[in-house]
Amino acid sequence: MIALLLVGCGKESNTISDTGTITIVGTDSVIYGIVTAHGDRLIPTNLGLQFEIDSLHVEFEATYVGDSTIVNDWGRRVNLLRIEKVLY
């Protein structure tokens, strides 16, 4: 019984490092998100204007913001620590 309780106590990492594609989210207002190579959907709180390009491929490192709640039923909020364009 104790082992079962300890399994649920692990804390997930607050940092993510991945590649992904910038995408426009929503229709009412323009919000840019990142769809990662693993299919996760993220909403960066500090995406620079030079990266606000639909379908741009990027490599990034970020931390989850606050409780990382879903924004507009689309993705989790993150604060970018590093981002760069990926050329294919």
Describe what you observe in this structure.
This protein is mostly beta strands. It has one domain: OB fold (Dihydrolipoamide Acetyltransferase, E2P), CATH 2.40.50. The chain contains 1 helix and 6 strands. It has a 5-stranded mixed barrel. A hairpin with a 3-residue loop joins strand 5 and strand 6. It is globular. The N terminus is likely disordered.
How would you concisely characterize the structure shown here?
The protein is mostly beta strands and 88 residues long. The chain has one helix at residues 2-7; strands at 15-25, 31-36, 41-44, 57-64, 70-71, 75-85. Helix content is 7%, strand content 48%.
CATH hierarchy class name? Mainly Beta
Based on helices, strands and strand pairing, what is the structural class?
A: mainly beta
Low-pLDDT runs of 5+ residues are 1-11
Shape: globular
Major sheet strand order: 1-2-3-6-4
Under CATH, the topology can be stated as OB fold (Dihydrolipoamide Acetyltransferase, E2P)
Roughly what is the average pLDDT, rounded to an integer?
A: 84
CATH architecture: Beta Barrel
Count the strands?
6
Number of helices: 1
| Residues in helices, as a percent range | under 10%
Strand content: over 45%
